[in-house]
Amino acid sequence: MNATVIIIFLVIVAMTLVITYYAAKKTNSASDFYTAGGGLTGWQNGMAIAGDYLSAASFLGIAGSIALFGFDGFLFSIGYLVAYLVVLFVVAEPLRNLGKYTLADMINARFNAKKVRGAAALSSITIVIFYMIAQLVGAGALIQLLFGIDYLWAVLLVGIMMTIYVLFGGMTATSWVQIIKAVLLMLGTVVLSFLVLKNFNFNIMEMFTQMKTATPHGEAYLKPGVKYEIPLDTISLMLALVLGTAGLPHILMRFFTVRDAKTARSSVMWATWIVGIFYVMTIFLGFGAAAFVGADLITSTNPAGNMAAPLLAQALGGDILMSFISAVAFATILAVVAGLVLSGASAFAHDIYGQIIKKGEATERQQMLAARYASVGVAAFSILLAIFAQSLNVAFLVSLAFCIAASANLPVIVYTIFWKKFNTAGAVSAILTGLISALVLVSVSPSVLSPEAGAAILTGTPLFPLTNPAIVSIPLGFIGGFVGTLVSREIDEKKFAEVKVRANTGGFKQL
Amino acid sequence: MAKTITGEALQGPLTKEGNEVKPASAGGAAEVPDFEKIERSEGFKHLMRKKKMFLIPATALFLGLYLAFNIVISYTNWLDAPIAGDIPWVWVFAFGLFAMTWILVTVYMKRAAQFDKMAEETLKEFGYEEKGDIR
């Protein structure tokens, strides 16, 4: 670890702590804690969404994947971006118009049943925990490499920082950490892309020509099929990515930080541009790393390819750029895990404690206390899991989180907004069918069971052929909701009229 | 801060008389508007029609193109041929999906501004007006 790294690193830590200090002064109610008082502007929330969404898996993972696998590495980027159309067209505005702090609030605007809220909270918590383990394990390994500290200390460092932001500064601190991270990440990526393009003489044609021979894959590098060889598996994964974003609790939660549906909409617009431009630049990062660092050095530093971007920075910009990119990676991790802690805490403290146990009658003080206890609880639990999961291959948990979000959360959201006959039983069965089928299928899939010892969490023969079960579990979630609704036959058309009017006009919010 | 938005607060007696649906904030006791009446109103039905006319084809378009792209690249090598120099078609189509996303977002932002106006008119017709920041 050199002096530049330490200085840049300390500057980022200090900056986020100053933000947390000021945010803490403004965090006086549950609404402040969960939604930053609902006062963010469109561009602020758009940047924060990008900051929340572009995880280390996006930045380091995709850059590494493109470096090692060419076009196949870029596939994730396409799914991650197109997903925002689902968010914009289906979810963002009704969510803002109907909900308050959580996804369960929105669904309960129609049903007001504890079991629906409980089921929604359960699926949110499951997604958050899986996503968080993947992030923390990745972060631990990465910080170990970047700053040369032990895995245990790396996880603890990230864990303590995220807890401080959320515990004291709530959504305000989390949002600004995410906004700053988005700016830093874009800045770092633009600089790296510029240097890569400069080395290709700013000629895209020449870049492709060189890439054709620059890697061990030869011509195949520029075409699909290097990494994903089973067609149905690829399609299943891509379905999870495009439909999952609209069900991720930490992304959904961001829409409660703006005052109305119009601002929610414009924040998606901002996010789409930032996220999209970022993903286009991942091509340059990946190609650059493959050409100027080389696959051998990338895989010998980290077999998953996660060090491609920092190594590229080292190769093109020396120690200073490498330090800056490492610091950006650190900020990236912090911003995402802070958002995750907050959304996990909201499911525990607001849904389970505030609405189910206290029946919505908790005092402001009780709500705040519960939110803070839940934040510490979620953080501590994830840190523990991450420490135990150190040697496990948990990279698949990110796409599993997307799969659960698409299977358990998206069907119930779609039915709640659009289907007149949908009812309480349908809502519970949609969530549980999607959640359970995704979990069961993945636990017997090649992601968890591999005949080769050590390749996956367990050794054995997979019973389900696909690594990502989305292509089966998403339809099951929809069927679950449909069958559950028909079986119970209860129907409340008045309530649907209300939900429809409120979701589509944004009126009658104070009810 | 508004009370928790739950169904409970809304299950009071419905206002029956005329088109006058008073919002909760008007005069003391919370009166619940007749949502079914609003739902059946011409203005609201018009809004829903216009929304559907945009959202259904647009969603079908982007999901269709996205799935078609993934199916084609997974099962065939149609897009492996170069379009220019050494750039295979698959990159052009991939970037096409990016462009499609940005275009649809931009078009939707324009459309949604019209939807907002229609929604506002409907709300006005039923005596509801945004009373500043309701949080």
UniProtKB/TrEMBL annotation, chain A:
<dbReference type="InterPro" id="IPR050277">
    <property type="entry name" value="Sodium:Solute_Symporter"/>
</dbReference>
<feature type="transmembrane region" description="Helical">
    <location>
        <begin position="425"/>
        <end position="449"/>
    </location>
</feature>
<dbReference type="Pfam" id="PF00474">
    <property type="entry name" value="SSF"/>
</dbReference>
<feature type="transmembrane region" description="Helical">
    <location>
        <begin position="119"/>
        <end position="145"/>
    </location>
</feature>
<keyword id="KW-0813">Transport</keyword>
<keyword id="KW-1003">Cell membrane</keyword>
<comment type="similarity">
    <text>Belongs to the sodium:solute symporter (SSF) (TC 2.A.21) family.</text>
</comment>
<feature type="transmembrane region" description="Helical">
    <location>
        <begin position="320"/>
        <end position="349"/>
    </location>
</feature>
<feature type="transmembrane region" description="Helical">
    <location>
        <begin position="6"/>
        <end position="24"/>
    </location>
</feature>
<dbReference type="InterPro" id="IPR018212">
    <property type="entry name" value="Na/solute_symporter_CS"/>
</dbReference>
<dbReference type="InterPro" id="IPR038377">
    <property type="entry name" value="Na/Glc_symporter_sf"/>
</dbReference>
<feature type="transmembrane region" description="Helical">
    <location>
        <begin position="77"/>
        <end position="98"/>
    </location>
</feature>
<feature type="transmembrane region" description="Helical">
    <location>
        <begin position="469"/>
        <end position="487"/>
    </location>
</feature>
<dbReference type="InterPro" id="IPR001734">
    <property type="entry name" value="Na/solute_symporter"/>
</dbReference>
<feature type="transmembrane region" description="Helical">
    <location>
        <begin position="151"/>
        <end position="168"/>
    </location>
</feature>
<protein>
    <submittedName>
        <fullName>Cation acetate symporter</fullName>
    </submittedName>
</protein>
<feature type="transmembrane region" description="Helical">
    <location>
        <begin position="370"/>
        <end position="389"/>
    </location>
</feature>
<keyword id="KW-0812">Transmembrane</keyword>
<keyword id="KW-1133">Transmembrane helix</keyword>
<feature type="transmembrane region" description="Helical">
    <location>
        <begin position="395"/>
        <end position="418"/>
    </location>
</feature>
<feature type="transmembrane region" description="Helical">
    <location>
        <begin position="180"/>
        <end position="197"/>
    </location>
</feature>
<feature type="transmembrane region" description="Helical">
    <location>
        <begin position="268"/>
        <end position="293"/>
    </location>
</feature>
Automatic annotation (TrEMBL), chain B:
<dbReference type="InterPro" id="IPR007436">
    <property type="entry name" value="DUF485"/>
</dbReference>
<feature type="transmembrane region" description="Helical">
    <location>
        <begin position="87"/>
        <end position="108"/>
    </location>
</feature>
<keyword id="KW-1133">Transmembrane helix</keyword>
<keyword id="KW-0812">Transmembrane</keyword>
<dbReference type="Pfam" id="PF04341">
    <property type="entry name" value="DUF485"/>
</dbReference>
<feature type="transmembrane region" description="Helical">
    <location>
        <begin position="54"/>
        <end position="75"/>
    </location>
</feature>
<protein>
    <submittedName>
        <fullName>DUF485 domain-containing protein</fullName>
    </submittedName>
</protein>
<keyword id="KW-0472">Membrane</keyword>
